[in-house]
Amino acid sequence: MTVHNLYIFDRNGSCLHYGEWNRKKQAGISKEEEFKLMYGMLFSIRSFCSKMSPLDMKDGFLTFQTSKYKLHYYETATGIKIIMNTDLGVPNARDILHQIYSTLYVEYIVKNPLCVLGEQLSSDIFSTRLDLYIRALPFFSPRAA
Amino acid sequence: MSRQSNRTTDSKKMNSELFTLTYGALVTQLCKDYENDEEVNKQLDKMGYNIGVRLIEDFLARSSVGRCQDFRETADVIAKVAFKMYLGITPSVTNWSPAGDELSLILESNPLVDFVELPDNHSSLVYSNLLCGVLRGALEMVQMAVDVKFAQDTLRGDNVTEIRMKFIKRMEENLPAGDE
After folding, report:
1. What backbone torsions phi and psi does residue A113 show, to the nearest 5 degrees?
2. What is the pLDDT of residue B24?
3. Contact A40 B57 (CB under 8 A)
4. Which residues of B touch A (CB under 8 A)?
5. Is the ipTM of this complex over 0.85?
6. Is there a domain that residue A143 lies in?
7. Is residue A88, in this structure, part of any structural domain at all?
8. Does chain A have fewer CB atoms within 10 Å around its N or its C terminus?
9. Which residue of chain A comes nearest to B141, CA vs CA?
10. In 3-state terms, what secondary structure has residue A19?
11. What are the structural domains, with CATH classification, of chain B?
12. What percentage of chain B carries pLDDT values higher than 70?
């Protein structure tokens, strides 16, 4: 089991942070292009899910998986979106993404007056802590499977 | 840092007198810096707004409140969860307009004004106007445009403090321009 990469988008669709761990194959397009595609796909899939839903739903779209990877999606009411790609063995990661939001994003970005909201995150402490957090996850190690 | 650590959810204790006095010092300084009360009110609102847009993230991180279904639920959460969390009071939600888009938050006591008397030459100062800005900023971040103002204030001799809040519109999230 392992973590491939992680995106954080704000409500306007700009990518605030991108982190990469065990990603062996790149998409072959520029990162900007990739962020745009990712956000566009999420935007469509979200509106599709809420249109198809037989009941009014609160959380909406949570995750999808292919034969090779699993995408975990977490969105706050303020429109911050955290996306984590992992391999298939990883169980529900909602709590983890919520933790990343509440203990890392809010603590180190929102509460830091020098971090302008809606701009690419430049805080070193945030990146370091996020990296440590991901590496400490029980399913991070590729050999744990 | 362990995954189980959940320190953001416990509320930190803080001396309420220090808080009240700090806010007082802030308003006093603004009164010195700006000529008239209107300008001070505006500055307080602006500061509150900037606090609100960040405070909402903290609120969402600490409470497990999800997206509200309607304005009534929002008002309930503001009164029962948010005010409780940040000011330690629970205002009552009343005076709904027939259309359900306007309401009043009645504050029995306002911790911001514990030691305050308004001098005669500041009769149009809205001392706690910061709160209006906070509410406006926080709700704007969850796609709700609202208008907030003080309707009654104990500092001006009213029996209670009343914050009047009007729902204007829901802001839709759009795809960034130029994306297909």
Report:
1. -65, -20
2. 93
3. no
4. 1-3, 5, 7-8, 53-54, 56-58, 60-62, 65-69, 141-143, 173, 175-176, 179-180
5. no
6. no
7. yes
8. C
9. A78
10. strand
11. 15-116+123-168 (3.30.1380.20)
12. 89
Residue A72 lies in a domain: yes
Candidates B1, B61, B67; nearest CB to A101: B61
Q: Is residue A104 over pLDDT 50?
A: yes
State which residues form the domain around A40. Answer: 3-136
Domain count, chain A: 1
The pLDDT of residue B176 is 62
Q: Please give the Cα distance from A107 to B84 (Å, whole number).
A: 21
**Is A76 within 8 Å of chain B by CB?**
yes
The verdict on a CB contact (< 8 Å) between B8 and A78 is no
Q: What is the pTM of this model?
A: 0.83
The more confident residue out of A55 and A45 is: A45
DSSP state letters, A32-79: HHHHHHHHHHHHHHHHHHHHH-SS--SS---EEE-SS-EEEEEE-TT-
Task: Give the model confidence (pLDDT) of A107-133 as tens digits.
Answer: 999 988 888 887 888 888 999 999 999
Which of B50, B57, B141 is most worth mutating to test chain A (most A CB atoms within 10 A of its CB)? B57
Report the CATH number that the domain containing residue A102 is assigned in CATH: 3.30.450.70
Q: Within its chain, how far is the Cα of A97 from the centroid?
A: 7
C-alpha count within 13 angstroms, C-beta hemisphere, residue A83: 25
Q: Which residues in chain A have Cβ-Cβ distances shorter than 8 Å to B143?
A: 79
pLDDT at residue B5, as a whole number: 41
Question: CB distance B66–A58 less than 8 Å?
Answer: yes
| B61 interaction partners in chain A (CB closer than 8 Å) | 101-103, 105-106
CA-CA-CA-CA dihedral for B21, B23, B29, B33, to nearest 10? -170
